[in-house]
Amino acid sequence: MRREVQWMEWGQGRGPRVLLLPGLGARGSGFQALAHQLLPWARPILVEYPEGEAAACGAGALARQVLRVVGEVDAVVASSFGGMVAAHLAAAGAARGVAFLGAFTRTEHLGVRGLAIGMMGPIARWARPGAVAAGLAAWTPVSFARVPEVVPTTALERSSTWHRALAIRGEAPPPELRRLPVSCVCIQGTRDVLVPPSTVERLAASLPPGTPRHLLRGAGHVPYFTHPEACAGLLRPWLAALDAAAAPEVESSAA
User: Fold this and answer.
1) Which helix (H) or strand (E) holds 38?
2) Residue range 55-76: average pLDDT?
3) 43, 195, 198, 214: which has the fewest Cβ within 10 Å?
4) Distance in angstroms (rounded) separating the CA atoms of residues 93 and 182
5) How buried is residue 76: exposed, middle or buried, by Cβ count under 10 Å (0-12/13-18/19+)?
6) 207 with 177: CB under 8 angstroms?
């Protein structure tokens, strides 16, 4: 059982370090396809969250754990609840950019769905999500072998989701990023039934003005899993701009 955040950095190049954050009950391994797409020009970092009772902490505490083991990164690509963790990291100055993939930084961005976020724990624990739930989240059939990458399937994963969901309401939300020097981008699936497209407008209002918003036609709640090439295509210019902006800072430090 994981009591702390586990992580693995892919690639040894000089590209930006890109942290990939899963949602409430998803596995970090679900980001592997996107990580492969990013490898030629970035150093993706996959993480797995703590499990069991160790998961009983909100996004802020989880962000501090991630920062302690991973360190500062250039960018974060966050799915769903991972957006809350990413916002805490950005507010702490630990990330220069955040890409939100069907994500949110505050539960109120979800509208009425935000009132029921605590129910995700009981649903995971007692409804025992499987292939049907994974297919609904992805908005496409998911092979049985890959279902665990989308929804919590083991008793330990269901318990972890239970603890994590209940802890969200027990902490203060992350600061808004609107006035912070952080580069953001929003990517949203048009078929996302868990974090609907209407979320993007509420999320964008809390982000720096001019933050780009992209809709992926036919994509569900996990576009990094179902549409890795399309996500990478949208992330590439954004990451390139982040990398270019960092170059003058490095040259200035060297001088």
Assistant:
1) helix 32-38
2) 96
3) 198
4) 9
5) buried
6) yes
- The answer to whether the CB of 99 falls within 8 A of the CB of 77 is yes
User: For 120-126, which contacts have Cβ atoms below 8 Å and span 24 or more sequence positions?
Assistant: 120/24, 120/25, 120/161, 120/165, 121/161, 121/162, 121/163, 121/164, 121/165, 121/166, 122/162, 124/25, 124/151, 124/152, 124/157, 124/158, 124/161, 124/162, 124/165, 125/158, 125/159, 125/161, 125/162
Distance CA 19, CA 210 (A): 23
The letter for the amino acid at 45 is: I
Higher model confidence: residue 104 or residue 248? 104
Q: Is the pLDDT of residue 253 over 90?
A: no
Nearest to 70 by CA among 54, 86, 51: 86
Give the SS3 label for residue 72: coil
Question: What pLDDT is recorded for position 249?
Answer: 55
Whether residue 250 has pLDDT greater than 70: no
Share of the chain above pLDDT 90, in %: 83
